[in-house]
Design brief:
single chain; mainly alpha; 2 strands; 73% helix; globular
């Protein structure tokens, strides 16, 4: 069983994956062609809105998950093979997010695409929560003494974001637009629950 305390390599690798994924999100937004006249340019820019929406929301979700990943690994002091593979699974979902984002930007008015995107972001959150739960249960992997109870509770509430996306799948059967707007609750769920609890 591989085990050690050199977690910096895992963190640096993870940061590089995040940087590449967040950059790839912008590649789907291209300058409109053949819009020399102001009216045509305005129309082309308005037509870019779905891609801009998918970029903006995906950028902030990737960024939020990067912050959450950073918060988890701030307390990780060791690793084992299983933690490395769970983290790799988490990074796999992050790397795939530009695809789901591009799909949303192109076909965001279709329920199946909203379901794919919501499922994908939920899987990202569930896998990061798995990283946290696995590491926090082993004193050789995580130093719980350096973490106060408020921070521990905040990390335990990591299921709130995936829950918002899973609920949005049900909402999509009522309205696709309502499901997409529902995603914005993900930015409020954890801070509000933390304050309440």
């Amino acid at each position: 069983m591989e085990r050690g305390t050199d977690v910096e390599r895992t963190v640096y690798f993870s940061d590089a994956v995040f940087a590449i994924a967040i950059t790839l999100l912008a590649l789907e937004i291209r300058v409109p062609d053949g819009a020399e006249k102001p009216a045509a340019l305005r129309e082309a820019l308005v037509g870019l809105w779905p891609k801009l929406f998918s970029f903006l929301i995906s950028f902030w979700f990737v960024g939020t998950y990067w912050v959450a990943h950073h918060r988890v690994f701030h307390h990780v002091r060791g690793y084992d093979r299983r933690l490395l593979f769970i983290n790799l699974l988490f990074l796999m979902w992050i790397v795939l997010l530009p695809f789901s984002s591009a799909l949303l930007g192109e076909y965001g008015d279709q329920r199946i695409v909203v379901i794919i995107y919501a499922s994908h972001v939920a899987l990202v959150g569930l896998t990061l929560y798995w990283v946290w739960r696995y590491a926090s249960r082993d004193d050789r992997l995580m130093d719980g003494s350096r973490m106060d109870e408020r921070e521990r509770l905040y990390n335990e509430l990591g299921l709130s974001v995936p829950l918002v996306f899973l609920i949005s799948i049900g909402v999509s059967f009522i309205s696709v637009t309502a499901a997409e707007l529902f995603w914005f609750l993900a930015f409020l769920a954890r801070p509000v629950l933390h304050r309440v609890l």
